[in-house]
Amino acid sequence: MKLMNKIGVFGLLLLIMSCSTNPFTGKQTMALVPNTQLFPTAFQQYNQVLSQSKVIKGTAQSEMIKRVGQRISIAAERWLNANGYEGYLNDYKWEYNLIDDKTVNAWCMPGGKIVFYTGILPIAQSETGVAAIMGHEVAHALANHGQQRMSADYIQQGVAMAGNIAIQNDNDREAFNQYYGIGSQVGVMLPFSRSHETEADKIGLILMAMAGYNPSEAAELWKRMKANSGGGAPPEILSTHPSNDSRIQEISSLVPMAVAEAKKFGVTSFRPITKF
Ligand SMILES: [Zn+2]
Question: Is residue 217 annotated as a catalytic residue, yes or no?
Answer without folding.
Answer: no
